[in-house]
Amino acid sequence: MAKKDIPELKEYFKAGKRPTESQFGDVLDSFAHLDDANVFSPHYKEKSNLRFVFPEQQADQAIDILLGNVIIHGWVEIEVAGFFNFQNSVGTIKKQIVIGAFNDNYIWRPPVSRIIEASGEIVDNIYLSDIVWDDVIKQYKITIYHTSSRGNDYAVRMVHHSTTNAVVDKAILSDIYTNPLTGQRKHYVHYNENVGIKTKNPGAPLDVQGRILFDIDSPAVGGVAIRGYETMWARGYNFVSSDGTQNTGGFGAVGVQNKINEYYIGQYENRVVTFNPENKQSSFGGNINTYGEVTSRSQRIFDYSPTIYLDRSENFGGYIQGIQTRLSDGTNNWFFGNAHADTFVISTGSYNEGRQLVINRNGNAAFQGKVEAKDFVVSATPTADHVFASDYNLREIGDLEKFISEKSHLPEIPSAKEMTDSGLSVGDFQIKLLQKIEELTLYIISLKKEIDLKPN
Q1: pLDDT for the residue 351
Q2: Which of these CATH numbers, 3.30.565.10, 2.60.40.1680, 3.90.70.10, 3.40.50.2000, describes 44-178?
């Protein structure tokens, strides 16, 4: 007896012929038995004859696929297909479950699952559970929830791949029963709607929670796309038009191998912002607008310009806050800011020795050096016009001569030493000078009268 092909076997049964015992043996040897492990592997099984109908006008129904109290290892794939009967519920949902479990609810590797396909109206009606242990009936099961109140006809196909014996070929269906599903009632991986990666509830056509990588040759489909690129000297991402012909700008890094010389935003040929990671310098190709506080320890506008430091540290240079410019060799140049809360300082070089202008909150100001102005107005009260009052006590000439001889300066005018030690109040000094000019005028008028009274 030997294996024969089908045309040979047909010759045994032609009209008028009677197959011999040997020929009947050839028939049996030419076909495979379902229990033949060499033909049908015990590690891979399918189940495709499961079919059921959920009733019409009954919401929150469910049915269990009963797997038995068995050892179930590897991955199980379950696919549910819907049809148009009572409502349009066509489509398919396919779920893959990886599990490691022994008899009697000894699960050493809890199930990990993912929806690998979900499309059509079926996603609004069917929800698939993971493999769970039912402690009442003492076996593993997969529950199929029907969340809609409209009935429909469904078919199930299952595949089991395992290093031990696969078991889904022995699966059977329970009766349909009421089982409200709480929480998530819909699978959110859709090829024709929103797609989520690392999220069960995508909020956009593509909702990715994590890093996104784009291939350099990936096409753009509608709108603006992001395309990644990498060359020997640069790498980054560009926004491109839907036809893939226009580069509208992006962001990238310039530098060979693992060395980054520059990060940039915009088109490389017309960069808006660049940042040098080595010296931590940035450049901007336009105006900088800010609606909040700007803080920095260093900002160089051009390569040939001084560096500007914005400082808010009490321990840096002795100032509370201000702007410090430095020359390209790092030496201090100018400082503009507060020496403390009530004093504003403009100084050169160092705080202690280079103060050129000090302005106090009380209105006092101090200058180091000459002050030049087109016009200079000093407000002073009172003036010196009281000298011309009728009751003004003008010092006698003799008394004035005696005072000058003893003091070496005019009355009410500071001495040279006082001027050197304490300085001068310009406003007060001008009034005192005016007072002396007015007194001198009175002396001249008095002398003129004495001369006029003398005989010729």
Answers
A1: 55
A2: 2.60.40.1680
